[in-house]
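[Meeting: bench + compute handoff]

Bench side (C.D.) handed over the final construct sequence. Compute side (W.E.) agreed to return the predicted structure before the next meeting so the bench team could plan truncations. Sequence as handed over:
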Amino acid sequence: MDRERLILEHQDLACSIALKYRDKGVPTEDLKQEALLGLIEAAGTFDPALGNQFSTHASFRIKKRVLEALTREGKTGLRASELDDGMLAELPAPEQQAGDDLQLPEAMPELEKRVLSLSYGEKLSFKEISIRLGLSVEKVKQLKQKALRRLRSMLAHPQDGV
């Protein structure tokens, strides 16, 4: 069987494995992409002469890629509500608003603009932003990634708006 055919016939396998990890803090689309990369890698390393089924070989490679992505993202599950008062006292006061100078598109959702503003304008960490906005650290990471993808898309296709 050729490589392209293996990939096309087993895309559903890759997606189903990715979906098992969807609530772990990495956007589902990113998990699917990692799973497909694992599938492509599996198609390149598969040797039918060894007597294994491709789906068995691919499952291992796909899971490996997805789990590596989760590890890279460092999903610890730390939420702002779990921080003690001592940690909160070390953070800058909310009045220190330096990040409003960023020029972000008006079409971008306000929460995404706020996350980028706090991240790049005020140079706050994910943890500090999560406390400021009352969101989990994971949600802040997701919003930042989504906002950056949106900006890239807007730059690539300025006529589309969003």
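W.E. noted at the follow-up: The CA atoms of residues 65 and 112 lie 28 Å apart. C.D. will use this when planning the next construct.
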